[in-house]
Task: structure prediction
Amino acid sequence: MRILLTGATGYIGKRLIPILLEMGHSIICCVRDKQRVPEEVSAHERIDIIEVDFLKTETLHRIPKDINVAYYLIHSMSSSTKFEQLEEDCAINFKKCIENTNAQQVIYLSGIVNDQQLSKHLQSRKNVEITLQSEIYALTTFRAGIIVGSGSASFEIIRDLTEKLPIMVAPKWINTKSQPIGIRNVLEYLTKAIGNEKVFRQSFDIFGPNTMTYKDMMLQFAEVRGLKRTIFSVPVMTPKLSSYWLYFITTTSYKLAKNLVDSMKVEVIGKPSDINEILDIQPMTYKEAVKNAFIKIEQNSVISSWKDSLISGLFREKISRYIKVPEYGCFKDIKKRKIIDEEKTLDKIWAIGGKNGWYYATFLWKIRGYLDKAFGGIGLRRGRRDQKTLNAGDPLDFWRVLYADKEEKRLLLFAEMRLPGEAWLEFKIEKDHLVQRATFRPKGIWGRLYWYAVLPFHGFIFKGMIKKLIQKD
Result:
């Protein structure tokens, strides 16, 4: 079958691609920026990449007519305070477009929406489902609650809280009940539903066998990890304080934390159905899902993370717009050193950040990260998804990877920290020299004052960093 995949660079979409290929399908990946698609995906003979933005109707003509099934995996929860309107507009445009193709089925991943008082996030998910219903194609909706898998937002938040805090004083929403489901099972539902007429024009709640509070999840997570944790809940923490609590302790952005807190107050309990018998799926327990997640983490094979999304930082534009580093009206710090071992230097460059730090004066990078977070920025909390590989669009601490080509021996990063201007950091090997170039384009007088204020630190940090990168040890 020919399958249209929206959200192809998102958490679920990235994990669907290899499964769909293994099943023998051809995939048309809808992305807003081709630069973010890894080469191993874009080069595959059964994958076509098209640039489509469902908020821009002028791009929709690129969607081919000859498709059989379409996945709707578009989500805007952390991108804007007006995400409900964005999601409705996307759904309307998607529906109009797909109705003009040969698609017989649309598969939509939503959230469990059975509570009487839904959060804005869950109400928006429900509205999207209503919008997507059509007389021309058959809509299949799977409604999931907490998804447990390496890299998922909920998993990483629970991991951060549990591993960082031996004793926790938490908001009262930690007593809210839900039925977490493993990412492996979610992918099973999404793929086994393809072309199955028994699930046409129907909605199914999908959930694991355990009904648990968030407190239960954290305690069982700690048990799997061999940790002892004590958790108290307090009724006095307001939603705003709860959002800041999540923001400062975990890796999440403030907007996402705010919307998550709004949703965490709502019980997410699914309605039983015969979907497990129809698709022959046996959902795993919460502990099994956590153990599977850590197998992926330990094998360094986390395919996708919520942090991969551009909206996990301050980025709002296509990456390609920033690949050409400006020359004029900028401050620059350029260092050039002769290389002793090119292969070793390249490996160091490609492993920079995250757990490895920045090779020199990492404590200063951390202080800069703390300051950034204190002023509402992303800080260093995102780390990196994979400690060995880098692709355009990947988060790297408070940077975003714009360009990464090891054969070309060039890595280009764009700063997503809060700055009075724009900043790039580039590493490039030219002949037998490493060129390290920091570029800052100031915005107004504050940008210029900022550059001169940090100039002494830059000289110290960048000089030490390039020295470490070219060392053979």
User: Anything to note?
Assistant: The chain has a mean pLDDT of 82. The longest helix spans residues 444-470. Residues 212 and 244 are 24 Å apart (CA to CA).
